[in-house]
Design a protein that fits this description.
Tetrahydropterin Synthase, Chain A, about 170 residues, 5 helices, elongated, alpha+beta
Length: about 170
């Protein structure tokens, strides 16, 4: 009922300088209308809402689990796979300015790398999951470095031959 009042007060007080508390695990990006983005924090950060937009970003390590993906290997074997990726933004300004929601980009890219790596091997290499995880990690690190994301590791949480394929080969 009083939403218009909140919007009015925001506009009316936008010329008043403000402080924003930035936690030790966060950073604040300020975009001024006449300059590029600048990184600030931790601590109290001063800004003017009328000429500055701000966004607070968490800089801690995060984990992303991909959806189960069915992939056909080079020899025709069908497998179901899922990965766990540990990542964090390393170049925060680049990550935020290049991708609107970079956490979704990490999940989508991890899914694509999973398909690329698995579709290029045959079924005999499935037992060597450590080597496959290293290949996943290296490919994902190369792709995510371009948008300012640091990938620590990418490992399989699920990797199994689908039951239908097992029944045909037995």
């Amino acid at each position: 009922m009083f939403e218009y009042l909140t919007a009015f007060l925001d506009k009316a007080t936008s010329f008043v300088p403000r402080f924003q508390k930035v936690a030790p695990t966060d950073r604040l990006i300020k975009w001024s209308r006449c300059q590029e983005a600048t990184l600030h924090g931790p601590g109290l950060v001063w800004y003017w809402p009328i000429i500055t937009e701000v966004e607070q970003v968490d800089t801690r390590w995060r984990s992303t689990v991909t959806c189960a993906q069915t992939v056909t290997l080079a020899d025709g074997t069908t497998v179901s796979a899922r990965t766990l990726t540990r990542w964090k933004p390393s170049d925060i300004v680049l990550a935020v300015s290049s991708e609107a929601d970079y956490s979704d980009t990490v999940a989508e890219t991890a899914q694509g790398v999973l398909v690329d790596v698995l579709s290029s091997i045959d079924g005999t290499l499935l037992k060597n999951t450590k080597a496959l995880s290293v290949a996943l990690t290296l490919d994902l690190q190369a792709q995510m470095r371009e948008i300012g994301i640091q990938v620590k590791k990418c490992t399989f949480t699920e990797l199994c031959v689908t039951p239908a394929f097992r029944l045909i080969n037995e």
